[in-house]
Amino acid sequence: MLKNTRLIAALLWFSLITLYFLDIASVLPDKMARLAKMQFVPALLAHSTVILIILIGLTMILGRIYCSVICPLGVFQDIVGWFSSRFGKKNRYKYFKPLNVVRYSFLAVFMIGLIAGIMIIPALIDPYSLYGRMITSLIKPLYQLGNNLMADVTDANGSYYFARNQVYIASLASLIISAVSVVTIKFLMWKYGRVYCNSVCPVGTILGVVSKFAIFKIAINTEQCNNCGLCARRCKASCIDSKNHAIDYSRCIACYNCIGVCKRDAITYKYQPNKKSKEVLSANVDHSKRRFFGTAIATSVAVPKIMAHGAGEDIITKVTGRSVPKREIPLSPAGSLAVKRLNNHCTSCHLCIAKCPNNVLRPSVKEYGITNIMQPVMYYEKGFCDYNCNLCSTVCPNGAISKVSIEEKQKIKIGYASLNIESCVVVTDKEECGNCSRHCPVDAIRMLPYEDKRRIPKVDTELCIGCGACEFHCPAKPFTAIYVEGYEVHKA
Amino acid sequence: MKKESLISRRKALKIMSLGGVGLMQACSGTNLDGIDKTSFSFDKKAIDGKVDKRTDTQSQNEISLLGFGCMRYPLIPGTKKIDEDQAQMMVDYAYEHGINYFDTAWPYHNGESETFTGKALKEYPRHSFFLADKMPTWAVNDLQSAKDIFNKQLEKCQVDYFDYYLLHALSKQEDYERVYEQYGVLEYLQKEKAEGRIRQLGFSFHGSLEFFEYLLNKPVEWDFIQIQLNYYDWDDPKQNSGKLYKMLEERNIPVIVMEPIRGGMLARLNDGVVKYLKSEDPSLTPAAWALRYVGSFPAVLTVLSGMSKMEHVEENVYTFSSFKPLTEGERKVLNKALTSFKENKPIVCTDCKYCMPCKFGVNIPGIFLNYNELVGELNVPNPNGVKDDDYFKKRRMFLNSFNNKFDDSELAHRCIGCGKCVSLCPQSINIPKQMREIDNFIAQLKKDK
Asked: Using an 8 Å Cβ cutoff, are B153 and B114 in contact?
């Protein structure tokens, strides 16, 4: 009963948040961004005290149900575990001592990363961001291909119900990092259960401390227990020491699997406010597991360094036939207010990238420096920042792109257009053009007289908001004659 | 337990496969082509007859009233190459049913039309068909280049002479004077005619009324003249087809008709007009209406139709076998249909592709045709009206059809307005202006989320 409730809630939450990431046609309401805002690390970075209090309070009362219901990476691991139990042994986990040194080290590193602004560290271990990237880099392209297949069908019958998407890999680095982290987490889950959640995940560690004091906990009735050990073998959190009838509440994720599996009904979930976990020192510490684990994490941290050789740009050039301009300062989305601010708040969940309707946002490679790899950066080869859109600012759960209204967004200057007259078709091809001026939403580009009645654009940087409509529409190839240069701190 | 789940899986598979079949049927059953979609049926057995013939008063040639236009052969899907097997079948079918006039030109199918037409007709005795080709006025730089083109054309078509030869697409007096008078190309072509490599000499026309008069008043004996004629253009102030026709009829010059269904526009029309025409005579397709209209003029020698499907050939052959001119009542019906069609303001593009390739990559005819298709099916949303379900349905269809059919680099917003295409357009469409309107309209639609 408890387990089924947990299952239903978890699957519902998980499917909704996953669908929200994949919803390329914007069918789902924007309010669903709250599912992302309920995540722990984003709430921490966005200083959402209310959400943090709710999450901690929930853990105080019921234990770590955050980890088995709200966290999408947690539910994803449960799904992996379910498959592994279907293809392998059903009850195959075993109790081991908590890897306290590992988990507190990771928490410390996580905190240092946050405070020092080395955001690659929290980005690589925050469960929500890991999951978000996994969906955006690995699942979304497949979803888009499926969408395009449907578009073929509806094009053929003339209803044009589906809009075709161009499927491309915006950043090879993100793709590889996501692939490596997914494979690692999948492997750990398949072999050892929720070892990531209980030894790496900073949210797991923090909530683990809280859940020790939870009011409702699992309890083993020693009178009924016959020491069969089934519960321990079923526990994916490896927190039941059945021999000693002890449960490590810091690792229990309140999945309730043990309750149903116990043949003698010895396990219950009940009100026991004062019970602390009995930590029994066990002799068998699994060193090989620790070693493997250290290597895995080291690998996934090292990968971004290897991948820092901007492969994404070549792909964009191939897709659009246009070269990517080298900007002195990268373009950060309007709500971020300053490049540095984005850098210090973003854990690269890629929700904004998944949601951007104009394919403007892409994971960065070296634009913000290697310590901020994979954070969203703007490019105008495939689209420009729509004057009437503020979607990235409404979905960002971290407050890295803080919420700005459309009216506010229209006034924020994220950069300015810069004109390279020598490449302009008015000069090179002696053509009458003005495509930049015509598409400028703020009339910042005027056409001034040039040779033979032709006119040449001139940018008023005071008016320019840096939306890139001019750069996107510029016919000069491969480098556009007009391109947007970023501001370190946005102007209003 | 296990067995149960197996059955349910099988059931699921069954449902899935049924769904798949349904989808495939949905894809194949509905065809985008305006002609086929409206499920007109004509008695296929009746097509064993042959296309009517008319006599060319100048040469006494017996010409089929339906001529085969070689500008719109079927293409191999996804390419710009002629689907030669399919096209050969169509040519054979046409020949067998009495079509003996084939009209090709230098630019058609990027030059492949002449080569293919020559090859396709090779198996038939030369005297049994009439082949028309044209001098590409815009491609002539001097007399020598014209001679080279003409000789190349004979070679490509694998013939010793052309039955009908035209100065292609005369539209501006200065071009005519420069190429045909200054360079002496007309004199050269007349010499070729004297030597028998050209049998009949004429021109095809896309210009103003004044220029037409100027040409007719020249001391040149034109054996025939090719004009754009259809019920849409008869009173059109740009095309003046009616006036041109009357001038030719007065002078007893045989008229060859191009664009009788306006590049397919009059075959598609729009749903409302198609329904109206069908209610008046269920046996006639919109294309048949248009062709019968043109064929009813006595001075018309042959009507050129650029057919790109076997069904087009079959249907047109049927229309022109034991040809029945329009009755007075039918004329009224057609007039009423035209008035209602013009209310929707389609773009008058005939997909001749003379504007292509656009230097900046815009797919001009593609965009216009897609727009007209949407106009024709009354699927143009009104962003200033009520934003109801119908509006959003049309909006989605409008935006998605442009998004799905074209690459971003081909769309209207890529038009910079250089204007090179304007002078190339035989229909005098202000292409940059139309592009800007479509671009602005799309931008306006995109604002509504």
From this structure: yes
